[in-house]
Amino acid sequence: MLVDLRVQDPMLTFWDAVVTTCVVMTDENDTRPRMDRLSDVLEGIFGSPESVDDIDPDLVEALNYMAENQEELLAYWTKHLRQTTAQDFLQRLFGAAVYVRLKRALQSDLQVLALAMRRLNHALLPYAVAIEDAAKVLTPEQLSALAVENFGAGKALDMLVSLDDWLQQAFQFDLPEELLTVPADEGPLTLKVIEESIDGIRQIVAGKSRRVLAELSDVCVRKMTGARTVLDVSEDGASQAANSLIELIDRLMRMAFTKTEVLAWIRANCADIPNLTYVKDGVELPTKRGEAMCFVHAGRPVEQRTPFTMLTGTAISVIRTQLQQIKHADTGTPEEVLATRTLMSALEGCFTLAFSFGWAGVEAAEVVKLKVQIEQAA
To answer: Could you tell me which residues are beta bridge partners of residue 279?
Structure first.
């Protein structure tokens, strides 16, 4: 019967793993850290293979088959789930009682999967806003040169809205209405919903930024907090805030890695990118952008560049340049204050992206070492 449905036994194991993982990860009563939950559920299903070679070869073969034929399989399964004639065929194939049980089980599984995917989509919102804010400081030409045009001018948020719209369409076939009811904060994403909650989302990004900065330097956290405070209370707050943010950037870039380390990193990983170094008095030195690129990659070898880290490294250097302009202009106008707030949000977004992507997997010992180096400048 499974052959008629183009389903292999290992596919059912994989489906069970996906649904079980979604159940565990969306359980609001489970107080374990998410990574512990994920590790436990996968170990319960697949055991503890020491390498890829230890994974069930039938499962690997089935997953490869699904990956190679995903479009054809999705089209085939969707057609059979939607068409009345196909459903009648399945009912005759399995028998009425078994068919009803399978249909209810599938509906339950899809409910769990839809909830998990929607929660994931909502969880990605702060990162999408961080990308948008970082991209705002770059010109269309700069975005194009980085091959990240798709992250400019609201496009990151558009992608999330499109994904949520697809989710709405994909999981609404034949599901009872009660299975589609979700809490208001897990409802459909629209640009209007995002716009209404954008300040709250930026506060989440700012909180993430402060937490990761705190792992490196208490001084840096104080400078970020001080910049925000001075904007609210001082007549020349824009200039003072800009100066604090510049000092924050310079401290991180200068103390995390020496110029020698940055140059070595650039030569090994970004030698083909222009304007990361310059020559002064016959000595090659890293530019601010070069230092930022090294920093957002945690000074580690880059196997494959990602648009997030390339965008972030460039944005940090552009933010610093624009803050310098505000610092020296010191007009104190409302427009200048607004521009400083915008740059601060962009910088917080950059730190969130850098630590979420470029620093992913950095050993705790390395973070402690960097913290010591950065704090020595205090």
So the answer is: 284
CA gap 205, 214 in Å, rounded = 14
Q: Is 138 helix (H, G, I), strand (E, B) or coil?
A: coil
Question: Which candidate, 352, 275, 282, places its Cα nearest to that of 314?
Answer: 275
Nearest CA among 358, 376, 361 for reference residue 216: 376
Sequence letter at residue 161: V
**pLDDT confidence of residue 148:** 57
Each residue of 68-109: pLDDT tens digit?
766 776 666 666 666 667 677 777 777 888 777 877 877 777
Q: Are 343 and 245 in contact (CB under 8 A)?
A: yes
Contact 309, 317 (CB under 8 A): no
Alpha-carbon distance of 331 to 266, in angstroms, equals 38
Query: What pLDDT does 325 receive?
Result: 92
Residue type, 195: E
d(CA 149, CA 171): 30
